[in-house]
Design goal:
Blueprint: E1 8-9, H1 15-19, H2 26-34, H3 52-58, E2 62-63
Parallel strand pairs: 1-2
Length: 71
């Protein structure tokens, strides 16, 4: 499935793409990159760098595609 227009993929976006989102600082973007893969935007609730209110705002603009890991 292709990402929807205007939605940024948490698992593939680079730092510049993440920092282009309002309210995402460089330190938040770095935490997102370090904590990949995410199964969905709600996984951001587990990051210390983001407040729950910030995550709620981001859920509408972030998405993930299914990530499958081979054991």
């Amino acid at each position: 499935a292709m990402p929807l227009p205007g939605k940024i993929n948490l698992n593939t976006a680079d730092l510049n793409e993440l920092m282009a989102i309002p309210a995402i600082t460089q330190s938040m973007a770095l935490q997102i990159v370090r904590n990949r893969p995410f199964t969905g935007p709600r996984d951001l609730y587990r990051l210390d760098a983001l407040e729950p209110k910030q995550v709620e705002r981001l859920i509408g603009i972030l998405q993930t595609r299914a990530v499958f890991t081979v054991q």
